[in-house]
DNA sequence: GAAGTATAGGACTATGTGCC
DNA sequence: GGCACATAGTCCTATACTTC
């Protein structure tokens, strides 16, 4: 309920979340709980008494309005398909788009940019057109285009597979008069998977960008920082141009750029419109006067076309544009938006796309699920803005009330940038690489210090990194060597060569795409579509052992596949999952999770002692170990209600992470066959927790071992550990007799599994790792029985 | 295909804080 | 006390995605 937000009892300090009194969901913020509570109260009632929504109501006014347009409007807004010869019409814009996408192969930019054209996006815009006179509210802002779906006809080799024979972007463009726009390479298109030709083009783009970045102006040297090519763009000492817009200027613009639509449609809440306008004018005037009085003290980064105070980019995208390439990683689309406030940016970093631990007090990467682009393990206090590289020290710091240090938003942005965006080597690199590691670490330290010194000079701050806080060797950040990047690019080059050959061999356009499925390169291209390795074109064989793109440079950073990416996987999941045999019941309170095929032993939380881990190769590529997505929060667009999506869900739901985390657990070390008390658990891997139905009936069924339509699914390579109590030796559940063996399973190895576990001291950070505005399943510390399934490694 | 539900980020207001 | 700024909380739009 909305009132719960103000109820201190609803605030769970341990979990850092607000409990919904009407269900079991937890929220990081009261406003999120408030929003959620409307899904229970559904306060927006339909005015038509004969409508079922007169009683049921809708959670939001927007949904009520949409319902009215759908059902009760005498003159509803109609969206018509713009393709010639198609008379499809819908009252929903999104449905119309959906239709054009599915029926006509329309490619468009899926971006949550709030209607704004992303800075680096192509001019590709929706093809649909609002019917004149039907939608006056938006018609003025929506270009009524001369519709020309020139992309038709496109041979539809597959329903979702559009292959362009040539390398031309066939998307309809709206501003073709912009001759400076590169339509050829910069059209961000999101399609379920990538055709070989598109893949070829994208690889080419990546290679081109790599060459420009690292080989363009000067030869690549070992001492060059290959990770942060954009860093130079924001180094103040490198600037000679005029100062960037001041904070006041930016804020003023931000205020006056308020969407008029938003103002018109904003519900009547808070102060009156006149009062709000007065305040806005007052604020604007005040800020303008401030601008005249003194310069922006937070002048840190200097001018940059991409960086203004109201236009702050995602630190990760800014640091690694080649990794957050929306052409190859549609999941990174949210990273292409910019932020006006640090709080908004921090909120963004909380998203599953990055997975940092963020709360009002701190930002932490201690708990981030590394893949093959490990992050520095850093905790940043948002009060004193001191960085910590030791999680225990960090936690101790947060337990104390430190002195608040005022910093400007640029300063903060820079601190976050410096701390979190460098990539690090695996912490268990073999000694043969230690020299490189140290060298790179020193470079990185220098890089950070350089920026910090400037901050110190210009803002007089005492950013602790300047004053000698250097990450311990164990946690010291480093960067991938240039040779590693070269190797990855070389892989792309080689793959492109194969793609070209494959496409040439494929013959004229129109030939069945099936002719390419046996080409490993093309297959890899499908695998690559998201960089996640989870995309498999339906009807295509899944090759677990394929040396696919997830191992390449553009694999990913820490993001995971999008839902679109994972469609391919889900098309196969009915085969990969195993259902319980009739009559076969699980032990009481056993919870079953799906864990994909064996994660790499490199996927470990890095701050534990993993020195005894075996390493496949001393010279293993930084990018080579990825086999499956590992983040629990697995999608930038995650939701808790779908197993394909990875946001933290409520107990009993797929993707529910926190239910498996928390203090006071007992866990079983699969390698040593020993049980350990206490500590907390983090399972990495794309697993399903029980089932994806959050109904109470199903929750009941899972706890009572009652077979239901959502009987717990079991994935490959799993070992079920049942710990009835913290005092009992766990028992191992044998699933060998279950049906439907995983077609992709591979022989288990004897890799130790204790890398799943973490010290209890890190529990704190889990509390913050909730998806903003999303539900998290809270671990119930009162439960006396915790049951886990671990992948056999 | 229609309808329902979800997330991401923009933008605004209210409030807290430090400084003059 | 007023100003400037930071931030939390909230509402909103856009749109992705699921379910039926």
Automatic annotation (TrEMBL):
Composition bias (Low complexity) maps to 722-733
Keyword entries, A-Z? Metal-binding, Zinc, Zinc-finger
List each coiled-coil range: none
**UniProt-listed InterPro entries:** Znf_C2H2_type
* Domain C2H2-type: residue ranges: 18-45
Where are the annotated segments for Disordered?
A: 110-149, 169-199, 213-232, 239-305, 578-599, 692-750
Q: Where is the composition biased (Polar residues)?
A: 110-120, 239-250, 692-712, 734-750
- Ranges of Basic and acidic residues compositional bias? 169-187, 274-288
An example of a GO molecular function for this protein is: zinc ion binding
What protein am I looking at?
C2H2-type domain-containing protein
Origin organism is Neurospora tetrasperma (strain FGSC 2508 / ATCC MYA-4615 / P0657)
């Amino acid at each position: 309920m909305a009132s719960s937000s103000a109820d201190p009892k609803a605030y769970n300090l341990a979990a850092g979340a607000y409990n919904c009194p009407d269900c079991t969901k937890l929220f990081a913020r009261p406003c999120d709980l408030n929003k959620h509570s409307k899904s229970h109260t559904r306060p927006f009632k339909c005015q038509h008494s004969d409508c079922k929504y007169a009683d049921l109501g809708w959670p939001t006014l927007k949904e009520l309005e949409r319902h009215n347009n759908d059902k009760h409007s005498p003159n509803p807004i109609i969206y018509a398909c713009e393709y010639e010869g198609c008379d499809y019409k819908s009252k929903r814009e999104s449905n119309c788009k959906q239709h054009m996408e599915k029926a006509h192969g329309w490619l468009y930019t899926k971006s949550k940019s709030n209607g704004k054209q992303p800075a680096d996006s192509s001019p590709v815009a929706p093809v649909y057109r609002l019917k004149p006179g039907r939608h006056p509210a938006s018609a003025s802002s929506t270009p009524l285009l001369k519709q020309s779906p020139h992309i038709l006809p496109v041979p539809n080799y597959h329903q979702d597979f559009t292959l362009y024979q040539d390398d031309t972007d066939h998307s309809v463009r709206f501003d073709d008069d912009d001759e400076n726009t590169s339509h050829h390479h910069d059209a961000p298109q999101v399609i379920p998977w990538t055709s070989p030709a598109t893949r070829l083009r994208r690889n080419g783009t990546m290679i081109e960008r790599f060459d420009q970045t690292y080989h363009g102006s000067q030869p690549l040297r070992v001492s060059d920082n290959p990770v942060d090519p954009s860093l130079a763009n924001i180094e103040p000492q490198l600037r000679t141009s005029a100062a960037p817009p001041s904070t006041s200027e930016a804020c003023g613009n931000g205020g006056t750029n308020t969407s008029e639509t938003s103002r018109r449609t904003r519900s009547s809440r808070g102060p009156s419109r006149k009062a709000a306008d007065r305040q806005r004018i007052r604020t604007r005037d005040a800020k303008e006067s401030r601008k005249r009085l003194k310069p922006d003290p937070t002048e840190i980064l200097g001018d940059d076309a991409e960086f203004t105070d109201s236009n702050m980019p995602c630190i990760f995208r800014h640091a690694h544009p080649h990794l957050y390439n929306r052409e190859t990683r549609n999941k990174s689309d949210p990273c292409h938006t910019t932020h006006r406030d640090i709080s908004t940016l921090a909120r963004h970093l909380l998203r599953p796309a990055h997975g940092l631990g963020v709360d009002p007090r701190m930002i932490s990467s201690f708990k981030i699920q590394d893949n093959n682009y490990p992050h520095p393990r850093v905790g940043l206090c948002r009060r004193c803005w001191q960085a910590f590289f030791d999680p225990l020290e960090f936690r101790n710091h947060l337990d104390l009330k430190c002195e608040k240090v005022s910093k400007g938003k640029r300063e903060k942005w820079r601190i976050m940038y410096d701390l979190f965006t460098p990539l690090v080597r695996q912490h268990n690199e073999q000694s043969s690489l230690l020299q490189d590691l140290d060298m790179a670490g020193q470079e990185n330290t220098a890089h950070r210090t350089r920026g910090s010194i400037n901050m110190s000079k210009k803002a007089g701050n005492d950013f602790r990194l300047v004053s000698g806080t250097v990450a311990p060797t164990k946690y010291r950040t480093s960067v991938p060597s240039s040779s590693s990047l070269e190797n990855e690019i070389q892989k792309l080059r080689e793959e492109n060569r194969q793609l070209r050959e494959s496409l040439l061999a494929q013959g004229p356009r129109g030939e069945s795409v099936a002719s390419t499925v046996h080409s490993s390169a093309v297959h890899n291209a499908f695998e690559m579509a998201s960089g996640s390795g989870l995309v498999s074109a339906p009807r295509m064989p899944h090759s677990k052992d394929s040396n696919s793109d997830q191992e390449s440079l553009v694999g990913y950073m820490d993001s995971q596949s999008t839902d679109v990416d994972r469609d391919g996987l889900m098309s196969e999941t009915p085969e990969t999952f195993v259902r319980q045999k009739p009559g076969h019941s699980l032990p009481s309170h056993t919870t079953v999770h799906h864990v994909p095929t064996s994660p790499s032993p490199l996927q470990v939380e890095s701050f534990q002692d993993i020195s005894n881990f075996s390493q496949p190769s001393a010279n293993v590529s930084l990018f080579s170990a990825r086999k499956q997505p590992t983040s629990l929060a697995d999608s930038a667009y995650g939701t808790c209600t779908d197993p394909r999506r990875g946001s933290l869900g409520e107990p009993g739901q797929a993707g529910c992470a926190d239910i498996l985390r928390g203090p006071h657990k007992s866990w079983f070390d699969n390698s040593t066959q020993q049980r350990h008390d206490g500590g907390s658990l983090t399972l990495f891997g794309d697993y399903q927790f029980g089932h994806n139905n959050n109904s109470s009936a199903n929750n009941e069924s899972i706890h009572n071992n009652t077979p239901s339509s959502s009987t717990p699914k079991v994935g490959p390579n799993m070992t079920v550990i049942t710990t009835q109590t913290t005092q009992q030796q766990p028992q191992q559940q044998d699933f060998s007799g279950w049906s439907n063996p995983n077609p992709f399973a591979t022989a288990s190895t004897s890799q130790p599994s204790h890398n799943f576990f973490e010290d209890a001291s890190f529990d704190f950070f889990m509390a913050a790792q909730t998806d903003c505005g999303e539900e998290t399943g809270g671990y119930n510390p009162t439960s006396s029985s915790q049951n886990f399934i671990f992948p056999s490694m």
